[in-house]
Amino acid sequence: MTLATVTSDIHPIVPATARGAATRRRLLQAAETEFGERGFHAASVSSVTSRAGVGQGTFYLYFHSKEEIFITLVRDIGRALRKAMSEARANEFDALEGERAALVAFFAYTKRHPGLYRIVQECQFVDDDEFRRYYLALARDYQLGIEAGSARGTLSPGNASVRAWMMIGIGHFVGLKHCLWDGAVPSADTIDCVMEFIERGLRAETPYPY
User: Fold this and answer.
1) CA distance 8 to 129
2) What is the pTM of this model?
3) N or C: which end of the chain has fewer CB within 10 A?
4) Using CA atoms, how far apart are residues 96 and 154, in angstroms rounded to an integer?
5) Distance (Å, rounded) from C-alpha 161 to C-alpha 117?
């Protein structure tokens, strides 16, 4: 049985108490640090529980395996990241300002979670289907935002799906360089440069009538 077969069919154990939920969160936080620093294969259940300050037996009250907590972590990261970006985007009427806000939210989240890049990239070797779902969900949110902007007339018409993947690529590599390698969110000048590049491809040619 392949690793992907195991992890694609996980059945989460739901804590029955607030204390149990807190312990589960602590395990996930420890797992994020372990996987982010050491990688999936070097990390172990014992290293996660040691970092979380709980017994190894406690781990199995919440997760069936190392693979399961890893995939749960990838899903949680994806949901939290998309939520932060969607909320930032929703606060702006102008679609380009919304994309700028979403990009800033992405960089801020990445700075707070430096293990994100390693965890997500390693996911393709643990469960390729889950890896694809992570990016497909992110692309869907980008596409919806671009389609909404085009419908309002704040963005030019075009293939929203292709544009969404281009936006992901821009954010991914700018974040990799600044948030991960340099350890700091991009400066306002850097974000201005990114948005100037994006705007040339997305800005509607005529002012929108609102």
Assistant:
1) 7
2) 0.88
3) N
4) 8
5) 23
pLDDT confidence bin for 5, thresholds 50/70/90: very low
Instruction: Please count the structural domains in the chain.
Output: 2
Which letter, b or e, does each residue of 153-185 get, where b requires 16 or more Cβ atoms within 10 Å of its Cβ? ebbeeeebeebbeebbeebbebbeebbeeeeeb
Residue 77, amino acid = I
What one-letter code names the amino acid at 38?
R
Structure tokens at 6: 């195991």
Q: Which two tokens stand for residue 159?
A: 């293939």
**Can you name the residues that pair with 203 across neighbouring β-strands?**
155
pLDDT number for residue 35: 98
Distance CA 149, CA 100 (A): 13
Question: Tens digit of pLDDT for each residue in 18-34?
Answer: 999 999 999 999 999 99
Last residue of one domain, picked from the residues 41, 67, 93: 67
Percent with pLDDT over 70 in the chain = 92
Chain segment 149-178, per-residue pLDDT in tens:
999 888 999 999 999 999 999 999 999 999
Q: CA 162 to CA 165: how far, in whole Å?
A: 5
The last residue of a domain, from among 40, 67, 94: 67
With respect to residue 193, please indicate whether it lies within any of the assigned structural domains: yes
